[in-house]
Amino acid sequence: MTDRSTNRPPADLATFSSNLDRWGPDLSRWPDNEAAAAQSLLQNSDAARRELAHSLKLEEMLSSLPPVTAPPALKRKLATPPESSSDDTVARLLDWFAISIWRPVFSATVPLVIGFTLGFLQAGEPADAQADQPSMLAFSSILDDYPEEYSDDFQ
What we know:
mainly alpha
C-alpha cells in the first residue's frame, strides 16, 4: 500500500511520532513528502490521530506559559564579542608548556631521587647490620645446612 501522491509507503507510527517531536503538530511546517505520508497515516490510524491530539494539547499548554526572558548579564555577555589577542595566546602556550611538560618530569624525578638517596644511605651500613634484615632471614635455613668449615665463607 503506497501513497499515490509521493509513491512512497505511508509513515509508520514511530516515524510519525519522531517527526511530531521534530517539526511540531502543525503539518504545514513539515517537509512536503513527510507531511503527505503523515496525512496518509492519519487517515488510516487511530493511534496516529491520538499522537497528533496529544501533541496539539502539549503545544497549546506550552504556548500558554509566560515567555521567559534572559537575564541582562547573559544578554550583555552574548552581545559582546570574545576577546582574543596574540599576547594572550603566547601566555597560554607558555603556561601550557610549563605545566604540561615540567610537572610530569618533576613528578617522576622526585621518587627517583628519594630512591637513590635511600639506597646510598643504606649502602654504607656494615654487613652485620644487614644480617637482621628480612631479606637475609630467607637465607638463614640454607646457611644452617652447610658444615662448620664453610660457615666462615658466608659470614
